[in-house]
Amino acid sequence: MGNVAVIIRIMPKSPEVDLERLKVDLKKKLPGIQDIKEEPIGFGLKAIKLAAVVNDAGGQTDAIEQSLSEVAGVERAEIIEVTLT
To answer: What's the pTM?
Structure first.
């Protein structure tokens, strides 16, 4: 198996969540992060959109979503794109 690039959208629990702190926590949880950006959603809420390179062994993407959803301040994490590297 090889590596895949995944694009993940992280929805914070509320507009009051400190996005800079959340970015640091996400980088600790998923060390393969290559890029991380804020994406305006509406009503002051911003999502975090990140790109990471991970091993594609055995459908690991579900585990990544679950792991990132457990970070404090995260409402949900969803993988929106997977591409071979």
So the answer is: 0.88
